[in-house]
């Protein structure tokens, strides 16, 4: 395993703004922990771990699309579809915390910024789109695949613009904001397409073979009727 | 499948830092990094002091310096951003070797480089002296919600499951005469990523059910661990206290 990815490092955004985002991230994650308690059952606990492991693996794929700005897959949309928004946000945050502590990827004081962008903004954008699109598109593996693709592209771009907002509030140097915004958006549209393809194939396969594992389809699931005679 | 007790950045040594309780190490690194980031970038002497402190910790941990430096190169992609800053920044400019550089950008580049490097070194020292399991136990003792430690435990366990299954599928492809070169390997990965996920899930589900049937309740049982003694808190407090002292001294003398 070669750790190459890099999130926001220490010192890119100044102390006060970093602190504000730590408070923001902690508050949102507290809500997620509270909501997730209800979701985390025998089926979701191992799934949450696997989704986190999967995200950990895909975040190692790092794209150097433009000099100086690199990006990577985020995996928030995949998490939303398979484990729901609350556990999903916790999965992405767990990945970020472990990367920060063990692999020195992303600064420890920038953890609030990184969690806000990738775990909260990215996951929230992905969730809103998935919740809407699942109702519009056919509830089969193809419809879900298309949903995953569109939601991934949008959520990755939204997350990248989170950095632009934080940089505007507390950047330690003067770079022109439109330039950063454009570079980040351009890079992350390409990354979003890559991420969308991975998320779409994964989700479509899971929906085809084990539809019971797809959180996004939960509300449309028919009540299970067990035919006892057929089993006997 | 007996792997998964160490991670690639762990260095198995019998150093003094390896024996410290994990929660005090996490707290020390966190506080040290906060002090570093809060230091104004123009206090150049303070950053030298921090580097000396980390050198002392490296010696106490018996981590070889080349080992540490090699792993610190993961910072490089971000340093690239720092290199652009003096050229792209605004404000007053200086001429150096015929190049027009922005002073603001130079300070910014130094800021990112110095703070980033110190943070990466501190995290690497934590990783080198703490196993994954100890790290989770440490987070648990620092009252991190159990949902987090539970997800983290499974994540670390399943990374090996994923890697093992990916390896098996690759061997299966090779043994069926599939041997593409270079970029064409991506096709097999793209086609197989869904089934890799499902296979790993079903393997992971069995691991989970086996754990539950052996009495797992969402917390790792503490086998040999003991809570940090007051003396350990004192020892590890040396790093953040010393760095805070340097920061204050630099601010007063300046």
Radius of gyration from the alpha-carbon trace of chain A, in angstroms: 18 Å
How many strands in all of chain B?
2
* Proportion of residues in extended strands of chain A: under 5%
Distance N to C terminus of chain B: 57 Å
The helix count of chain B comes to 10
Residue stretches of chain B low in confidence (pLDDT < 50, at least 5 long) are: none
Class from secondary-structure proportions of chain B: mainly alpha
Number of structurally distinct domains of chain B: 2
Shape of chain A: globular
Search tags:
heterodimer; A: 232 residues; mainly alpha; Arp2/3 complex 21 kDa subunit ARPC3; two-stranded antiparallel ribbon; 7 helices; 4% strand; disordered N terminus; B: 254 residues; 2 domains; 2 strands; 3% strand; flat
Description:
The complex is a heterodimer of chains A (232) and B (254). With 232 residues, chain A is mostly helical. Chain A has a single domain, classed as Arp2/3 complex 21 kDa subunit ARPC3 (Orthogonal Bundle), CATH 1.10.1760. Chain A has helices at 15-39, 44-58, 76-102, 111-136, 141-170, 177-209, 228-231; strands at residues 62-66, 69-72. Chain A has a two-stranded antiparallel ribbon with strand order 1-2. In chain A, strand 1 (62-66) and strand 2 (69-72) form a beta hairpin. The longest helix of chain A is centred in the last third of the chain and has 33 residues, at 177-209. Chain A is globular. The relative contact order of chain A is 0.16. Chain B is mostly helical. Chain B folds into two domains: 16-139 and 226-253, no CATH class; 145-213, no CATH class. In chain B, 71% of the residues lie in helices and 3% in strands. Chain B contains ten helices and two strands, in the order αααααββααααα. Chain B has helices spanning 16-19, 22-38, 44-61, 65-72, 76-88, 103-129, 132-141, 146-175, 185-213, 230-253; strands at residues 93-96, 99-102. In chain B, strands 1-2 form a two-stranded antiparallel sheet. In chain B, helix 3 packs parallel to helix 6, helix 5 runs antiparallel to helix 6 (103-129) and helix 8 crosses helix 9. The N and C termini of chain B lie far apart (57 Å). In chain B, 36% of the residues are buried. The mean pLDDT of chain B is 75.
